[in-house]
Design a protein that fits this description.
- The protein is 45% helix and 17% strand.
- It is of the alpha/beta class.
- The strands form three sheets. The chain has a seven-stranded mixed β-sheet with strand order 4-10-9-8-7-5-6, with helices on both faces.
- It is globular and about 55 Å long.
Length: 389
């Protein structure tokens, strides 16, 4: 390694530590329900996005194991070479049906989906309106597109309409938003966004990573939550590693969208396909979401109980509407100190600092799951009250 690069790494690492922004990996050795062995200590996990507890569901494990025997551990190639296997296509059909779309295309992660689909669909001469609190993968997808990107204030449809009035002379216009915002836990005002989009002939793209499986009467996500059709939101992205308990992502929409992305999305074209056994497990997860509504009911009961408990302690949960429940602290160093104190009490709630959230908005990001028992949540609230009350 060059001397200059070594010096750069040393200085930047020191600066991160000085500002309280240095991050380190924590090793989870074992999971049992909502409890984990975190570096040799048993703690209650309130940081996972496994909202329905499906990551440890025996039905998914059995489906995965059976598929391993038939398909092996890996696909061996990108899908345009020799990695396109029947479980991939069967899962895409299941996703399309689940999302009420004509078609769907698998990607290897939500990051792959957004950094592949957005630059494929929008480019130089186009305009993208992006919510200022959109996920980093959307931000990076917009940057890669080379389109003109204008951020609009969070969930502010009046400002969105005004910006569209001021910016009309573009080949194509896209409005991109998270369905559920991953750090605040609030929900995008999709009906208003769809209405505005129709006025300006703009296409709406929704990243529904944190809505799939939990929002809507049957868990189909943010569109179902608002009673919207796939025609009104022609580009739906979602992930398979949160409520569905597996890994991967998809873009759902019309068949011509799928065919276009197969040919133009670089993160799809130049990536080895997901393991086929994983696709079989995800398909099983979708069936569970559709056939076992009690999981969602338990999740929302837990969300209500935990939020009420935090309110009684006097904590600011930042208008959260979902299982993502931020506890606003403000200062980055103080946030991480509280995170460490909670760990001592046996509760794992991750602290979140800039650049993930704006400066001065550092927080504990708690996530509730259907896997949590009432006793688990009472234990967590007791620990939080001790440290923060």
């Amino acid at each position: 390694m060059s001397t200059k690069l070594q010096e750069y790494l040393k200085n930047e690492t020191a600066l991160l530590k000085e500002e309280g922004l240095f991050r380190e990996l924590k090793t989870i050795r074992e999971r049992k329900g909502a409890w984990v062995d975190l570096q040799g200590r048993k703690v209650l996990d309130l940081s996972s996005n496994d909202y329905l507890g499906l990551a440890l569901d025996p039905q998914l494990a059995e489906a995965f194991q059976q598929a391993l025997e038939m398909c092996g551990t890996g696909s061996g190639a990108s899908r345009l070479i020799s990695g396109n296997m029947s479980p991939h296509e069967e899962l895409e059909s299941a996703i399309a049906n689940f999302k009420g779309a004509e078609s769907a295309l698998l990607f290897n992660s939500g990051y792959h989906a957004n950094t592949g689909a957005i630059p494929a669909l929008f480019g130089k001469g186009d305009l993208i309106l992006s919510d200022e609190l959109n996920h980093a993968s959307i931000i990076d997808g917009c940057r890669l597109s080379k389109a003109r990107v204008v951020k609009y204030p969070h969930k502010d449809c009046t400002a969105l309409r005004k910006l569209l009035h001021e910016n009309r002379d573009f080949e194509k216009i896209g409005i991109i938003t998270d369905g559920v915002f991953s750090m605040d836990g609030d929900v995008a005002p999709l009906p208003e966004i769809v209405e505005i989009a129709s006025e300006f002939d703009a296409a709406v793209m929704v990243d529904d990573a944190h809505g799939v499986g939990i929002l809507g009467a049957t868990g189909r996500g943010t569109l179902e939550h608002f009673g919207l059709s796939s025609e009104s939101v022609p580009i739906q992205m979602g992930t398979l590693g949160k409520a569905l308990g597996c890994f991967g992502a998809y873009v759902a929409g019309e068949e011509k969208l799928r065919q276009f992305l197969i040919n133009k999305a670089r993160s799809f074209i130049f990536t080895t396909a997901l393991p086929p056994a994983l696709a079989v497990a995800v398909k099983q997860a979708i069936e569970i979401v559709q056939n076992e509504p009690s999981l969602r009911e338990r999740l929302w009961e837990n969300v209500r109980f935990f939020k009420e408990g935090l309110k009684d302690i006097g904590l600011d949960t930042m208008q959260s509407e979902t299982a993502i429940i931020p506890i606003l602290i403000g200062d980055a160093s103080q946030t991480m100190e509280i995170h460490r104190e909670l760990l001592k009490e046996g509760v794992f709630i991750q602290g979140v600092r800039p650049p993930t959230v704006p400066k001065g908005k550092s927080r504990l990001r708690a996530t509730v799951s259907a896997a949590h028992t009432r006793e688990d949540l009472e234990f967590a609230l007791g620990a939080i009250a001790k440290v923060l009350g």
